[in-house]
Records
---
Amino acid sequence: MTYVEYKQLNPFQRFAYNFKKFVLNIPHAVAKFFKAIGSAIVRFFTGIGKGFKNYGVTFVKGDWATKLSYLIFGIGDIHKGKYYKGILFFLTEVLYALYMIFFGWTYLQKFSTLGNVKTTQGFNELGMPETVYGDNSMLILLYSVLSIVITILVFAVYISNIKDAYRHQVLRAEGGKPTSLKHDVKEFLDGKYHMTLLSFPTLMIGIFNIMPMVFMILIAFTNYDQQHLPPGTLFTWVGFDNFASLFNFVDSATKATTFIELTKWTLIWAVVATFTNYILGMVVALMINKKGIKFKALWRTLFVIAIAVPQFVSLLLMNQMLQSNGAINIVLSYFNGGVNPEIQFLNSSTLMARMTVIIVNLWVGIPYTILSMSGILMNIPEDLYESARIDGAGPVKTFTKITLPYMIFVTTPQLITQFVGNINNFNVIYLLTGGGPSTEQFYQAGRTDILVTWLFNLTMGSQDYGLAAAIGILVFIVCATLSLLIYNNSKSMKDEEAFS
Amino acid sequence: MKKILAILMAGVLTATAFAGCGGDASSNSGSSSKAGESSGSTATGVNASVVDAAYFGDEDNVKLKVWTPDAAVNLVKQQIESFKKAYSDKKFDITVVAQGEQDAATQMLNDASAAADVFSFPSDQLNKLVDAGVIAPVAKGFTDYVTSSNSEDTIKAGTSKNTLYAYPETNDNGYYMVYDNTVVTEEDAKTLEGTLAACKKAGKKFIFDAGDGFYACTFAFTAGAKIDGLEEDGITQKFVKYDEDEAVKTLQAFAKLIKEYKGTFTSLNVKNVASGFKNGTCGAGVDGSWDTKVNQDSLGDKFGAAKLPTIKVGDEDKQLVSMFGYKYIGVNGSSKYPNSAQILALYLSGEECQKQRTEELGWGPSNVNVQKDKVVTESPVLNAIKDQSQNSCTQVNISSTFWTPMGNLGNKLVAEEWNPDDADATRKLLQDTITNIRDEG
Amino acid sequence: MIKSYKLRRHVANFFIYALLIILGIIWISPFVYLVMHSFRGEGLIAVDWLIPHEWTLQNYIDLFTGAGGNASINFPRWFLNTFVVAIFSCIISTVSVLMVSYAFSRLRFKSRKKFMNVGMILGMFPGFMTMIAIYYLLKAMNLTGTLVALVICYSCGAGLGFQISKGFFDTIPRALDEAATIDGATKNQIFWRIILPMSKPIVVYTVLTSFIGPWTDFILAKIIMGDNLDNYTVAIGLQKMLSNDFINTYYKQFLAGSVIVAVPITLLFLKMQKYYVEGVTAGGVKG
């Protein structure tokens, strides 16, 4: 299709065209994605190879101080007069050694077995019970992860110490002098400002997001469950058993059925919840922002209150109101000749419960859509409408030609974020139905449970940590792939500098 | 105060007496010789809830944390004051924290080292706690006294792998029928049919929490599908042999009755019973011993209590069978002051403390002496619970997969679309439920 | 022609008004129900009627004095805790979000896009499993059961929520930066003196969202606090009031407590609504 042809299409056709293009593009994008991952891995290994080569070459070329830096951090820098950096390098090594000797190594050496000394209970000489604690597999795993992460970081410091030593050696040979502390500080506020800005958040994210995540990923390969709970009992590595049990319809039929059924419902839920919210939210936003409608602020305020009340309060309240003796049934009894119909919204029929969840989710979600849509509607350049009016376009035409395409174009990224958000929408399901109605066909889950709420039940309810971690990883892979694909192909990412 | 002093005296006297004559036949043989070796004059056995201070070992400036349900916090605080007086030569810093018993095991398993040193928990959590190795067994020197002073059932349910793991606290952890005696007469309360009819006549509800496995298992138990501990693997629930045809008939009878009294028989969270009494919308309901006080407050003089009623199956009036358990006081295995924690647990589970809890909170005691007390024998509630406990399954050794399928069974039976006449569907539901409980996935 | 067009518009507007009124009632009614029943005198938990028969302030009084139950509930303390945690985590979160998004939006450096991708997908990890690890990490630092731990938890991941504010920064013309650089300003000065003053909507948006977090989270907070009732936040406290042990005594106080929590947040939201809309729009369009 040529540009001219494209321009002649109406907005819906254009949207359809773009949408089709997008869908057709998915296989290509997936392929590109994996190719990118592949080449990244290749680059990684060639990088390592190159690193080894440089490591050797630098050692041969280095003077005594540079050579000594291979053993003692920072000697090269100190020798060349870059004192503060040299001392920092050296301190890193000392602290690392202390950490490993007094803490890290005790755990790291048991990493391969996750401990083998069992906890025993006995009685002391007074006849009082005494617990002799053995290894705690969980702490071994956690602190091993910590030690490994620290080791990797220290290794990075080690390499940069060598590079820095050699750089300064070359610099001296060329007659240069190392930069002063003052100069470096200045550089960190300008040329290397990104390091200053990112270091603190990265550190926090590293400790409290990435490390726990690595820990969780490793848990998925262990038998950490009801029968293997530290500190009383040990757990150990089991390979891919947890993943296998999710797909094994023979030996663990209930788990596998639960997984498949919940995955289906999770996807249905995410699609329906996202689109109903989007479309109905847009309709309400359009109504509020329509020319000639008064009290815009009042209408918006009514909806905003629903955001401002903490979700767990409003959802728990909704749960009470939807019980067979709750407010909704009382209201319905006015239409039913005073007889309470006692409709079981949440714990009787699957369809009823699922519809209720989706409808309540509208109540929760539409206000957010209204807020962001209102902003976008106000942002549509007025001159677009002006010129349309001059061309003699009526209200219907301006809507279909200007308002709608603009909105759809602008909010597509949001739609995707919401989709992923709904896959992980814990609150609505957990607080509203608690997973009910119950069923005898699922393992630790009910008919409205989605994967994340199941994951929660497995960890908090039945202590199936290994299985839960495996599910967590699968959900994560789906969400991450989806968003990476979409973000890297979305307009806003490609045209990052469009406005500037 | 005088009483406590007396107990203290008795404790000290007997302890020294035992120490004098070495291994007495009634004292625990296992520990006596060892105790003797360590310090010539320590106690060898106890027969009161206050023991020789030698049991503390070298612990002093003791810091302990106690978990107890919210309702008992103030009483336990008082009891701890008397505990401190009983051992006035030691220094204590004991805090009492409100912690629901139903969460005790979960909290212990999440992080035992941050949990309480001494905690209350219901009997079904014992296995979980023992398996995870977070609960310490009862001190050897105390076992005989605890065993002899508490009822046999509570000791049996507190024992795992031939070791007594916890100090019995109550003998009342079950549910029974509470009713408004202006709506339901004592005679009505004997049968489910009578109760429902009386409630319907008064336009009031009968509330039963069929969605919660803890209550819903009544359906299965009454039908004959009673539980019988665990299989040898230690995780699979064992059921007694039962007549399936008879069981199906019973379940059908339940479903029929429920359908017949639609609008009267209401499946709601058990907390609605007390609320319904207060609003005047509830005529009767099945509620647990822990809600006795709030139900009594709501109904005042109109309060009535009885064991669960019977249901007519064919020509027979079948007694409803319930889940029944006990509550215990346990000691955290990772306590920093293990000896003091044992001594405190022994004290709190002792006769005097149990009696106070019975008088002030209405909890049914496990102590055999308190059980004979007037407070217990003349309490209609405790009698109702006792009667019901004759027709119950013990809440111990319950697999974690038990509750959800049972709750599902209850939900299905009371659901509007359930057809009580469909014997095949009922049979399948029962079979599925049992399979799901036994198959751990 | 014009007349009929006008008429049509009136009819359309009439329907829109009608619809908006109905929707407005639906959206506001749970809140009205909540407020009404927080003043209810009779009953324990649910009642079979919509409008309370007895009106009383007792629930609020009990909530603040701790009367009407055992001493385990200390709502004023919890309110204060939450407020303190919210203030601190909001400051740290806002600073880190702005730092990260400024770096990604205005600065060009090696592996910037890789960083952004990693940052984006990290935010998608289901958090429940990591809670165990976070708990033990905090325990190793001897912080479990403290408010500091909560501040750390609520603000540590804040940097990952950079998309919206990055989108906002992207819309500020780069010519401004260039002009400033020619005048000799460092990147640091540009951030503080030029970009930040122009970013009120996004700052308000970030402050608002991170301030509300501690008032609503109850899962992570509960695990960290354990049984340390003194350091509970209102969210865990309110949740506790609905547990089996407490609900009969505290249900009406729970309703009152919910109103107390909801009112300030609602007012804040209404006051800041304009900025919120501006922030989410500007950021969302690009992000």
---
Amino acid sequence: MSENKNLWVFFEVVGGSPKIVSMELLGKGKELANAVGEELVAVVIGNGVDAAVKIAVSYGADKVIVVDGADYANYSTDAYTYALEQLVGKYKPSAILLGATGIGRDLAPRIAARLNTGLTADCTGLGIDTDTGVIQWSRTAYSGKLIAEIECPEARPQIGTVRPSVFKRVPPDLERSAEIIAEDIPVPTGLIRIALVEKIEEAAEGAVNLEEAEIIVSGGRGLGKPENFSLVKDLADVLNGVVGASRAAVDAGWIDHSHQVGQTGKTVGPKLYVACGISGAIQHLAGMSGSDVIIAVNRDPDAPIFDIADYGIVGDIKEVLPALTSAIKKLRS
Amino acid sequence: MNILVCIKQVPDINELKVDAATNTLPIDKAPNVVNTLDTYALETAVRLKDADPEVKIFALTMGPEQAKEALKSCLSVGADKAYRLGDVLLEDSDTLATSYALSGAAKVLEAREGLTFDLILCGKQTTDGDSAQVGVQLAEHLSYPQITSAVEISVDAGKVRARRETGDGYEVVETALPAVVTISKTEYEPRYASVKSKMAANRAEIPVLTVADLEIDTALIGLNGSPTKLKNTYVPQRKKGGIKLEEENGEIAADKLAALLSDAGIV
């Protein structure tokens, strides 16, 4: 067997704040590491990450490796791959888990190829063979119509990205302490080849982080007109959720593509997904069928969305949504 | 400027239905199409060619004999030349082995055509494997910079500039060519072929590259050269039918639903 040991979680930090999925992965990672008697190590890369390191400790990391420097203030494929490559060479972990976020999905294939090892993307389930330490990665393929179980039996480290919301966060323990290892990894001149020209954060109203959202209310073509997205927004607000959309609504120009859920949009896994006026084309289902609870509101009783919905209302969006918003408001008060 | 567009032939996801009797997914029975986001990658290349007639577009796929149909479809909407990398030695390659073989093919094509691919475009991910790994790993094998999830690109003075999707919006980035860019859903739709261009594409020769043509280490391709192994596949259990409310009006239905959600502890 290889000399590689310990399970790493790439603890993703953006603008000083860790991603929720990274906290989820520390919980699951702890379970896997314990099963094979290894340590759970959080790897934090960024600039000014002290607060994030404390959070990683509170969520169960036995050790935290920290790479803190101005070169890492913004994510870049080249610098982050370089840093991970150095760290893996020095510490030789048995496995690395990353969140299947925009950054995780950009970084993981690059570092896996750099290390000539196996990567399984977008996992929805993880197990481990306690004798061999081989991780069993489960993921969907063919737009969720098939589950594939994948292993990386020999190459190390085994690498996988895991979808947000697959695993639940364990309660943090603020009293925990852990060994913090600071690694100084200066980025060689010219290594970063991609220049950031402009960051386009959406206006506060439109700001959307669908991938990590716990509650999503999505609108589709069945809304009838773009103005009716305000009904979707109202319901999302009362539920403390964010607004998603089907491709049809995006293509019609009713809402920006960054809200799109589905095959050519984002894959989401919230606790609650409300589909309003969305018929449920397979491309849309591919992006949201992993939601814990699905509610569908649609005028067409035969819409395919009802096949996967836990709760459905057959009715007119313009009637149902305001009524649902006020009924939930009443419940809350 | 020379653009290489890497595409994949995949089963048409719309035609792919679980066989209820056997609870299996009959992948072989579905008709094959060019992977959706690959068609956006090709359209992106063709738009660059529309603006600059000096642009040459090469389409490349790795796949079995039938994949030549996908390449013909690319030729019919603007690719100038198409190559298929096909060899039994490549069967069951995972993403690392596939991207390695593609990098070898790209180098051989450059030598054969006497040019360099300034820009390599790939669809961000496929509808079959959905992994979004091959484009990025191709960039690594070629030691090129990568831009992922681009929705708009432009090329000027030896640089490619792209608007790309991030977790919380967009950013504009820039890098020197050569580079690999993976394309997400763009605002524009792929064009259709004309009858004439279809007929011309049908007549076109699609040269085949085999592993022997490439300068690659055969220990790193195929099933044995793939670090990941597929152990099992199965059709996930479908959710049981939920509760569907059909009431007199929206208000009654909404009140009933709110009560149900409250009882279930959902809101």
